[in-house]
From TrEMBL:
Physiological role: Lignin degradation and detoxification of lignin-derived products.
Family recorded in the similarity comment: Belongs to the multicopper oxidase family.
Keyword match Secreted: yes
Full protein name: Plastocyanin-like domain-containing protein
The keyword Oxidoreductase is assigned to this record: yes
PROSITE patterns: MULTICOPPER_OXIDASE1, MULTICOPPER_OXIDASE2
Single Gene Ontology MF annotation: copper ion binding
Gene3D superfamilies: Cupredoxins - blue copper proteins (2.60.40.420)
Chief location of this protein within or outside the cell: secreted
Source species: Pinus taeda
Domain Plastocyanin-like per the UniProt entry, residue ranges: 7-118
Annotated InterPro entries: Cu-oxidase_C, Cu-oxidase_fam, Cu_oxidase_CS, Cu_oxidase_Cu_BS, Cupredoxin
């Protein structure tokens, strides 16, 4: 079995406006045994499932709570386990997802979602004003 190591970079994932996003945080590892409090800026998400061991993409979704899942903006990826979340990408802009343990940034436990504009003025980011100074 191969050991996966993250690329040392903050990744950006482009999302279509109003798309449904599912993430599974897998916290089984061989180096550090601690929980990872994963936080998503700009959204509340639904915690649809969690379990111990490795996530099984065939069996585990059958046990998801899709009726009344808890809504959060931070969730614990448990030691030696996984947690699955879902959200609707209906807030255009760039949104940071990260582990709340700052040391874990260097491990690659962070990324950015870039959510595209929607079709209406209320689902679109306004352009910057013409007199905004350049950086």
């Amino acid at each position: 079995q191969k050991i996966w190591t993250p690329d040392p970079a903050t990744k950006v994932k482009l999302l279509e406006y109003n798309s449904t996003v599912q993430l599974v945080f897998q916290a089984t590892n061989i180096f550090v045994a601690e929980n990872h409090p994963m936080h998503l800026h700009g959204y509340n998400f639904y915690v649809v499932g969690q379990g111990s061991g490795n996530y099984d993409p065939v069996k585990d979704p059958l046990k998801f709570n899709l009726v009344d899942p808890p809504q959060r903006n931070t969730v614990i990826a448990p030691v030696s386990g996984w947690v699955a979340i879902r959200f609707k990408a209906d807030n255009p802009g760039m949104w940071f997802l990260h582990c709340h343990l700052d040391d874990h940034f260097t491990w690659g436990l962070n990324m950015v979602f870039l959510v595209k504009n929607g079709a209406t003025p209320s689902s679109t980011i306004e352009p910057p004003p013409a007199d905004l100074p350049a950086c």
